[in-house]
Task: structure prediction
Amino acid sequence: MRNATTIRPAEASHFGKLAADWWDPKGSSAMLHRLNPVRLGFIRQAIDSHFGIDSRALKPLAGKRALDVGCGAGLLAEPLARMGAAVTGVDAAEENIAVASEHAAASGLTIDYRHGEIGALGLAGFDLVTSMEVVEHVADKAAFVAALAASLAEDGLMVLSTPNRTAASRLLLVEGAERMGMVPRGTHHWQDFVTPVELHDLLADAGLVMGNPMGIAWGPTRGLHLSDDLSLNYIVTVTKR
Result:
């Protein structure tokens, strides 16, 4: 029987220490603030396509339930709530959940934030499940993906993003970004990055189908943007078979 424990205490502790600074666009999570609009653009297009929503709709997730796993302090959960979803956010660090809850309340948003192991919370039936830059941090990737699958409604949509394990990602995301202070030291462990082929197989084993991945690339003039270049980071849609 597979060990269902996916939380690495050291990883949870690392991100918990960053909690108080999470919402500062110039703080330790500055890179996430730059990345978030790119991810949201992809997610919005995926929502419109999957659910047949008018791209002009202000609340495309109205009447739907969304789950953000590894939600941090709520950078993605809050926009999903503003899109009309009833949002649940789950994170391994209690500090993140505390900051997320406080920020949502101050923003007039109702979000159900929970701390704990995703597979032990009994969450199911979500129309949208998101998990951004999380699978590379978990102790048991197959168990984590299986838990994500269990939380997704039969006709639901999942969106995942993760760094690719390439020479370029090692140079720029680990050696470059962390040494230059763009990302806190110890955030990335290159050996735990997941290639698109590996993610495809993990998802297939859990009864899920991966769409065509889209790269998240960086350029000196465009900054972070969606691209056909998968060498640094990529984002994908996922559905049940």
Q: What stands out?
A: The chain has one domain: 9-240.
